Every structure is written in structure tokens, then in C-alpha cells.
Amino acid sequence: MKKALVILVLITVGGVMAIGAWRVATGRGLWSGDKEPATKSASQPDKPTPEISAEALKAAQTDVNIVALISDYVITKDELEKELMKELQPYDYGGYSVKTEPADANGVLMRMVAEKAMMMEGRKNGVLETDMIFNAVKKFREKQLVNRLMQEQVAGGVIVSEAEIADKMKADPKLDRAKAEQALKRAKANTIISTYYAELYKKSNVKKATANFAKAAEIHQRLLLRPIAERNVQFIRNSQIKNELTEAEKNIVMATFKGGKVTLKDWFETIGEIAPPWRPRDLNTEAGVDRLLERALRTPVLVAEAIRLRLNENEALKKQVREYEDQNLLGDARQRVGKETPEPNAAQIKAYFDENKDEFRQSRKLKVDQIWCLHFKAAQAVKAELDEGKDFASVKSAAGGLDKESKISDIYPNVEAYFWPELWKGDPNTVVGPVKGMHRNEFKWRLVKILEKHPGTIPQFSEKSADRVKRTMQSKERLAAMERYRRELLKKYTHKIYADRIKDINPLDIP
Questions:
Q1: Distance (Å, whole) CA 429 – CA 431
Q2: pLDDT tens-digit profile of 415-468?
Q3: Is the pTM of this model over 0.85?
Q4: In terms of domains, do 302 and 380 share one?
Q5: Residue 287, Cα to own-chain centre: how many angstroms?
Q6: Does residue 413 have a cis bond before it (omega within 30 degrees)?
Q7: Total count of domains within the chain
Q8: I need a surface site. Which of 57, 123, 236, 466 has the fewest CB within 10 A?
């Protein structure tokens, strides 16, 4: 309930999440208080490759749930099984390949360890200090700080009574109870937030540099109407803030407050937070500059208060931020490796198609009826009845399984993935199974009666099919390049695998 309420509070804040200028130190891997995003220079010495921490090694001696270590990262059996379940998802969203075998525990664990090494390599190479990721992490951290501030200072006061809910529903008969309660909480949250922020604003001793407002308006008009780089849109791009403002302009102080300041760069970044159709039209005026400055002040003022209350020292927050850093580091590595893969030429595309025509077969499918079972033992019992010669439809109706009303349907290779080869072996009017499949986002056992079998057709090579062949080739090459990169990193970074703790894990047996 409290979590949902915080989300409600953040929604009502509106402009609270605009990027400000506040810089603060926090847990490992984040920027220092005065540090600006930067790219690692060639002259900077390489950081030492971290070894497995002594604390992690000691913990792994007694905790059998720990299955791998690398630096201070600990991977548990629970995390591995969760990742294995993701791998078991048969859907191929890209549609360019079909999984033929389920992932094994060791393979997935090695990938998880290698991904930690990719994160560590990114940290070592200063990826967190590049503009895009630095600002993304900063914004995320500020959002979490404001969220916690609202949770501790505001959320407890958003309480509505049953009488208030009844009155609201009476006043607006279209509202059900849940919507009426939500509307009341939103209104109360708005009132509480407005009062709280007004008091905090006064306490923060905000002082605006009004003498710089005219200059801000002038610079805004320059970027809007006279961009240096050619621009095919009628609004200021974020790249202009980075490239077309001089360092002196970026550092123009627009306002100060207890513990921080807002610069012209922060003011422009607030514009970038607003979708172009809704950006203010009066930023060529001092009054318009002032109104936007009020919005730009909200997050840094709130974050400063959160720091004053030492919310930044919360270990859960530090963990959240580091995990977000890790996501960005991993995404950056994947993108970089993907960009480095060569693009096949026309001759290579045609040759690949000629050698792998069956891979591009279209409309291959099976028409099936299925009996979904609660567990493997139930599926075995159903199979025994079918082996005795009982009618499939009758057994399905009497089985008491998961979905007696499931209808005859078509299934496809890219949806069934590694289950497909076994299903495709079945001839019409035969039953395959027990075999697992996905039933409402869970893997369950089933018996599958094959009704019709459609082999599909291989298309003629054309411009359209060439595009699919190209994407298939690129997808495979990116996967191969990523695998090579992982192997290289695992040679570089010390890691430890507890193979005996995963030897009995069968992905298809994970509940």
C-alpha cells in the first residue's frame, strides 16, 4: 500500500523530476560531488583488475546458495534459477532464429558471470563518466532520493476515510470505489506536496540571479532560431545544450539555495525534459525564464533536503543505484560489441540464403489440441489413460487439469522454440508428451494431440527476403561476437564457479 502511494505521490508532483544541478557523493561507482561527466583520457593509468573479495570468499564457504563469485559480485542459486526461467521463455521476439535446445545451468551461469565482468570493464574504462550514462544515473538517483523523501515526509498523511470515499462516489456516480479512493488520495497528495514544498523552498533560502534572466532569454533565442548545427526540427535539441553553449554560458548561475545552485545548463536541461509541443512559448522573456526556473529548482531543492536528512546513506538506495549503473554498463557493452560486427554484403546474404533455405521457411505450423496438467504426475496419469485407448476429448474433459476449455489452436516454431522439434516429430492423430509448454506465463506439463501438420513454404529470394536474411546473419554474428567478448573477459577477471552446487539443476524441472 505504501509503495503504491509513493507512486501516486510522484505522479502528482509533475515537474519534480526535472534535472537540477545538485551534485552529491554516494556509494561506490558514482560520481563525486564536483565531478562532471568526462571520457577517460589516454594518459589516465589503468585501474587494477579487482580480485574476488575476501568477504565473498568467506561467505561462500558456508552458504551453499552461492554458486559464483567475481570481484565483490555474488551470484546465488536463486538468481541463477530465475535467469534460467527467463531463458526458458520460448518466444523469439525478433523472429530471426529458433531455439532448439533449452539453456543449461552452467552455460547461463557463465554468461551471468561474464556480464558482471562486462560491467566491471565498463567501470574500469570510465563508461559511467560519459555524458549519456552519467546523466541517466544522476537522474535515476535523484528520482529515488525524492521518492524516499516523499515516502518519509508526505505519504503518511495521505489517508482517506470510508465516508469521504462514499461522498466522492455519490458526487460522481461514474467512479467505483477504487477510482474514488485514488482520486481523493491524489487530491490530498497535491495539497500536502504543495504545502511541504512551499515550506521547504522558504527554508532553503532560494535566491534567484535575476540579473542573468535577460541573458538566458537571449541565449535561448539563439539556440532556437540560429542553431550552429543544421536542424530539421523547430525546437532546441539536447545536443545543442551540450555542443552550442560555451562553458562560461553553461556555468551562468540562475539561482542559489542552501547547499546548491542551478546553472543555465540545468535550466536548459529542464527544457529538454518537456516534450516539444508543451514547451513554454515565452522563454524569450524574463517572466518566462523565471517560471521555468521555478520548475528547474524543484528537484535540486528536494534532493538537497533528502541529503540533509541523510537519505542518501540508505544502503538499499545505494544498491538500487549500483544496479541501475550495472544495467547501463551492460547495455553499453552490448551496444558497442553489436556495432563492431560487420554488415554482410549482397553476395554473402545470397550465399547464406542458398545454404540455409529451410531456416527461412514460412507458415510452418501444427494444429493441435492440448491437455494442460497441474504437474508431471498428473500428466503421466493422463498419458496412461490415452495409452489405454480412451478418447482425447473425453480424457481432457474429465482430467480436471488446468484448462479444460482450451480450444484447438495453431502453434509455431518461434513460439514453441526448443519444444518444437519434439512436437514436429508427431504425426497427425498422434499424441506427444508429457512435454512442457508455456501456459499463461508459467511452464506446465501437457499432452499434445497433433491434428494437422503444415510444412510451410520456402520463399523465393527477393529484396524482402534478403532483408530478413541480413538481419538473421547480423543477429547470429552479434551473438557470436558477444560470446567471444565474454570469453576474453573471463580470462581477464578472476572468478570462481561452485560447479557442485549447480550440477543437479535441470532448467525444465524448475518449478
A1: 7
A2: 888 788 889 999 999 999 898 888 877 778 899 999 999 999 988 999 888 999
A3: no
A4: no
A5: 39
A6: no
A7: 2
A8: 57
